[in-house]
Amino acid sequence: MLSDGFEIVEKEFERIVGAGPELRKIAEGFEFVEGPAWFEEGLVFSDIPGDTIYRWTEAEGLSVWRRPSHQANGNTVDLEGRLITCEHGSRRVTRTERDGSVTVLAATYGGKRLNSPNDVVVKSDGSIWFTDPPYGIEEHEKEQAGNFVFRLDPEAEEPVVVADDFSMPNGLYFSPDEETLYIADSDQGIAHVRRFAVQKYGTLGPGGTWVAVSPGIPDGLRSDTAGRVYVSAGNGVQVFHPDGRLLGKIRTPETAANCTFGGAGKRTLFITAVSAVWAVELGVEGR
Q1: 45, 34 Cβ separation under 8 angstroms
Q2: Is 3.40.50.970 the CATH number for 6-281?
Q3: Three-class DSSP labels, the chain
Q4: What pTM was estimated for this model as a whole?
Q5: For the stretch 77-116, what's the b/e string if a residue is b when 16 or more beta carbons lie within 10 angstroms of its beta carbon?
Q6: What is the mean pLDDT of residues 245-268?
């Protein structure tokens, strides 16, 4: 054990966290925080029930970036540096333009409203991949036949389904070479991360269970440049080798909902955990 906040399972984890890592709280007092993204040299993140996107920088601290946010959930940054947001409440995926205006990228599939877009990632070809579980809507409000994972191609009017057999698709992230896509299923009876081979033309091969997660459920996912996967879960962020071995855990006082890399050299891991946001400097570079 390094300290109460860090648990070594394999020696490799010591190289990841470095000597004497410190988990520090950088913001607190929220209802439920999600969707961290490193954006314009600062961190943005969503307080879903608080209906706000916040921005934090080391120099200026915390400020409101957008309110109302339509219960924004997952966020990411596209190839042009614009913020892409899953709006939990409005049931759509949007892009914030350079002038601050908001463009709706996806709101329907098959002419029917999306469920409640949850998390999102952008591939190097500009395509946007997002999950669409029914969190945030009542059963009678659901229009889709399933809880899908979608790919939205540049200039497309609607997304296409890339995976249709999830119970509660949640966090997703590509390996550094983009040949593998990891997707969390946050159904409490399933609680695992699946791994898919990314095929030509943006399709996915069969996706078997990669790792089971305990305690809690897997939520947000990220990776470092070596392909290790960081899985937000019930007791913090669990770090896995690409072969599925658990390397160690970065424990948080509350359930970790999501994480992202940012800061100088992308060596800071930011973690959203219910009412607070935490940061830890690592010895590796994130993607």
Answers
A1: yes
A2: no
A3: CCECCEEECCCHHHHHHCCCCCCEEEEEEEEEEEEEEEECCEEEEEECCCCEEEEEECCCEEEEEECCCCCEEEEEECCCCCEEEEECCCCEEEEECCCCCEEEEECEECCEECCCCCCEEECCCCCEEEECCCCCCCHHHCCCCCEEEEEECCCCCCCEEEEEEECCEEEEEECCCCCEEEEEECCCCCCEEEEEEECHHHCEEEEEEEEECCCCCCCCEEEECCCCEEEEECCEEEEECCCCCEEEEEECCCCCCEEEEECHHHCEEEEEEEEEEEEEECCCCEC
A4: 0.97
A5: bbeeebbbbbbbbbbbbbbbeeeeeeeebbbbbeeebbbb
A6: 97
pLDDT tens readout for residues 114-168: 999 999 999 999 999 999 999 989 999 999 999 999 999 999 999 999 999 999 9
What are 78's two structure tokens?
């596209």
Give the pLDDT confidence of 93-110 residue by residue, as tens digits. 999 999 999 999 999 999
- Do 213 and 233 form a contact (C-beta atoms < 8 A)? yes
Provide the residue ranges of all domains of the chain, joining segments of one domain with +: 6-281
